[in-house]
Amino acid sequence: MELARKVAHGAVTFATVASLVYVPSVHATPQGEGSLQSCPGAPSPAATSVATNPLADLAAGFFGGGGDADSTPAERDPITPFTLYGTSFKKYLIEELQGEKVISRKKGFTVNSCVGAVSSAQETPQFQGLPTGDKALYAKDRVCKKAEGQELKEVCRTACESACTEAIDLYDKQVKEESGFALLASDKARLTKSCTRNCSYECAKPGKAFDFVIPYRR
């Protein structure tokens, strides 16, 4: 009561009041000897441990820390860079042939896709001045595949995929016979996919002839 009266008359400062408030100190004690109990809902010590740094984890992935020991990419052979040159020829009908003679025609689509690989050593300034369709003629063995059907996109994809796959396999075989080097299976798969995608995209456009170019520069 005396304290309250003095506070009311401004006789007691804040510091004086604070000094009269008892704040118990907390001392760490061994477990089982009066240690403080966790409050309901409070996180456990394990939950309050320092979280891992996501940037550190990302850096570890880039620079090899913590990576899988077997995840090292295969080494590529030093194959001379080359380029796939291709052309697709399209007809808006399906012809039934007897030898070289057309005996009947029906509605649909006919696509002939031709693909050839040319080494960078052959790509002289004179070569670069040629139309894309003519560049494929410099390939050692150009592959042409034909497909027919009622759905244009499917016909294009079938012809393109077949020509791209065989042309890449053939060139890889030739390089291996000449130098002993070979394309990685993963590179062949990516190259085939890119060739098929570009060939099909150009083929589906309105018109009758379409060129495409796929470089390999690893």
Structural description of this entry:
This protein has a domain at 82-216. 36% of the residues lie in helices and 22% in strands. The protein has helices at 2-8, 14-20, 54-63, 125-128, 132-135, 152-179, 185-203, and strands spanning 82-91, 94-98, 101-106, 109-119, 143-149, 209-216. α6 (152-179) runs antiparallel to α7. The longest helix is centred in the C-terminal third of the chain and has 28 residues, at 152-179.
User: Tell me, what's the shape?
Assistant: elongated
Strands side by side in the biggest sheet: 5-4-1-6
**Poorly predicted ranges (pLDDT <50, ≥5 residues)?**
1-71
Q: Note the main sheet.
A: 4 strands, antiparallel
What is the oligomeric state here? single chain
Summed up, the helix count is 7
Mean pLDDT: 75
Q: Structural class per helix/strand content?
A: alpha+beta
Signal peptide: 1-28
Keywords: Signal
What would you say about this model in short?
Keywords: Signal. 36% of the residues lie in helices and 22% in strands. It is α+β, with helices and mostly antiparallel strands and 218 residues long.
